[in-house]
Design brief:
heterodimer, A: 6 strands, 42% helix, globular, B: alpha+beta, 17% helix
Chain lengths: 159, 428
């Protein structure tokens, strides 16, 4: 009986580990260049940065927002969890911002996580998002609401 | 194709391993249950070691799968080109309308109003160009073709700005711009496609279309964020020519070439978008101008203050707009002050592609204020004007909206009237 309990406990722990690994892989990591002094943001700050309402970071660099092509799972996740928009609202928002003179072009979409990672790594002020499983040493992951990808309650998920 | 291959790969490699792992994990359990109820320390150690090894193996496989699943077949990442200047962007906006009302040739208190005679009409044809000239400099222009009551089309430069935007906190726009008065004027410009309703609230109409406010300024606008934590304050400080109050025919109220005085109008506004009230924007502002009216009967100079405040709320479905103004005109020779209040409130709710909306507009221009009862628009705005509007917007495609709006118009010097406006608004 004790052995059964032990096995069940080990199996439960094993499954929980699997689930945590799965969660991390499905998180959207916010990335900046390694030299950036930006370490963490709140969800509202992240929203303002990606809406280009906040134009420069703590190190004085202008933010260059980098996004994924529309229709990709990462783009859909960002629309839902960062922008709180659907695709039509996103397009209208940036057209309106352009019309108001606040911005001069929409964020340029890139076609893969590797492209976003590479661009952010090479560009001062660039900020973007990739799957947590695509993070490597070339870039820095910043915390959102004090949480890192893989943490419980990390707010940016790919569904 | 890639997904099918990955699934097959998973079936071939990961599934057998997972099944083996579970079988290995359960086999000793079954054996031990039948043989003994006591756990030997060695057995326990081996079991734990075995589970650890299997977990590591499965994790490695998962990681391999995750990389294969990631849309990172990534042959050659497409990097954006380095910025090239000037970076020109062009957009167009337009609307085609139909309107009818029952205020046809009615006359009350000596004022004639012809009304809208059951007409199809072209709205504004708005050519919008913006171009980034360098990392910090850009130019924005909005040229509008629109028709008048004489059926002739005229061309107006509605906005022309050289912009210097070095950071979030200090930005400068130089040229002709929309004065940062309240919310509506600073948010909606000449493209009706952006607006939920068919047009602007009556008192916020353009200077040459029956409005009462200095919608445009030619001069300088300084604006940016104020470090204020979760309050998210921003400011506008503007200085420009102000409007020309004249009864001389053919004179444009917006002094875009020659000002009739040396004094300049000044506008300040403070806006908050607190983090703790998502979707809410609140603002206050004050505009000042020293006005030298040009009328057949000489009038003194006036000090004009326009105080304003707004509260708006947006979320994915709801939009609530409200703003109020108080115009205070005081003759500069120690004369009396004249106050003219104005406000509107608008609410709308999106139901998929349909957005029903309602608006109430009110303004009361003092009949004793010579600037508005004699000079501005030849006195047509003096008195009380108010009424409700009900409408429906249908976003038939992403860049085309059809709108229908009913207005009930109550104007002190005119008969009450109903007006129906249909509009197709688009952007390209």
């Amino acid at each position: 009986m004790r052995k059964n309990i032990l096995i069940l406990t080990l199996a439960a722990g094993f499954m929980a580990g699997m689930a945590a690994a799965q969660d991390k892989a499905d998180d959207l990591a916010i990335i900046v260049a390694k030299g950036s002094t930006l370490d963490s943001v709140t969800s509202p700050e992240l929203n303002k940065i990606f809406l280009e309402e906040k134009s420069s970071g703590p190190d004085g660099h202008k933010y260059i927002v980098t996004v994924h092509v529309s229709g990709s799972p990462e783009c859909k996740a960002a629309l839902g969890s960062i922008y709180k928009f659907d695709q039509g609202e996103y397009d209208t928002y940036f057209l309106r911002a352009l019309f108001a003179g606040r911005i001069h072009e929409k964020p340029q979409p890139l076609n893969s996580g590797a492209a976003v990672r590479q661009y952010v790594a090479a560009t001062a002020g660039a900020i973007g998002y990739v799957r947590a499983s695509e993070v490597d040493d070339s870039i820095k992951v910043i915390k959102v609401d004090g949480k890192s990808p893989g943490d419980a309650d990390y707010p940016l998920k790919i569904k | 194709m890639n997904k099918t291959r990955t699934t097959a790969h998973f079936r071939r490699t990961a599934l057998p391993l997972l099944l083996t792992a579970l079988a290995c994990a359960s086999a000793p359990a079954q054996t031990n249950v039948t043989s003994s109820s006591n756990v030997e320390p060695d057995t326990l150690k081996k079991l734990l070691q075995r589970v650890d090894n299997q977990e590591a193996e499965i994790q490695a496989l998962k990681s391999q799968l995750s990389h294969e699943n990631a849309p990172a077949a990534e042959p050659a990442p497409a990097m954006p080109p380095p910025p090239a200047y000037p970076n020109l962007q062009f957009h167009g906006f337009g609307d085609i309308d139909y309107a009818a009302d029952n205020r046809k040739g009615t006359m009350l208190n000596g004022v004639t109003e012809t009304g809208v005679k059951n007409s199809f009409f072209l709205g504004e044809y708005d050519l919008f160009v913006t171009s980034q000239l360098s990392e910090e400099f850009s130019v924005l222009s909005e040229v509008v073709l629109s028709g008048g009551t004489d059926n002739d089309m005229s061309l107006d430069i509605e906005r022309l700005l050289l912009q210097y935007h070095p950071n979030s906190y200090f930005n400068v726009d130089f040229g002709r711009f929309h004065t940062a008065l309240g919310y509506y004027n600073n948010t909606y410009h000449h493209g009706t496609w952006f607006q939920t309703a068919v047009g602007r609230p009556s008192f916020l109409q353009y200077e040459d279309s029956g409005g009462i406010l200095p919608i445009h300024t030619v001069g300088l606008s300084f604006h940016g964020a104020i470090p204020s934590g979760k309050l998210n304050l921003s400011y506008f400080f503007e200085i420009g020519n102000g409007d020309r109050f004249t009864t001389v025919p053919g004179q444009n109220a917006v002094q875009q070439v020659i000002a009739n005085t040396d004094t300049k109008a000044v506008n300040v506004a403070l806006i908050a978008t607190p983090d703790w009230l998502p979707g809410v924007e609140m603002g206050i502002g004050t505009y000042y101008d020293r006005i030298t009216p040009e009328a057949a009967t000489p009038l003194p100079d006036f000090d004009q203050f326009i105080f304003n405040a707004h509260v708006v709320y947006h979320n994915a479905n709801w939009e609530f707009l409200s703003e109020g103004y108080l115009i205070d005109d005081t003759a500069g020779n120690g004369g009396s002050s004249h106050y003219s209040p104005a406000f509107f409130a608008q609410i709308s709710r999106k139901f998929g592609l349909l957005t029903p909306y309602a608006r109430f507009t009110y303004y009361d221009v003092s009949n004793h204020d010579p600037l508005y009862s004699i000079v501005w628009n030849n006195g047509a705005n003096a008195g009380v004007h108010y009424g409700p509007s009900l409408g429906l917007r249908y976003d038939i495609s992403t860049y085309v909206a059809l709108k229908a709006q009913y207005d009930y118009l109550i104007d002190q010097k005119l008969n009450d009237a109903s007006r129906l406006t249909l509009q197709a608004a688009f952007t390209f």
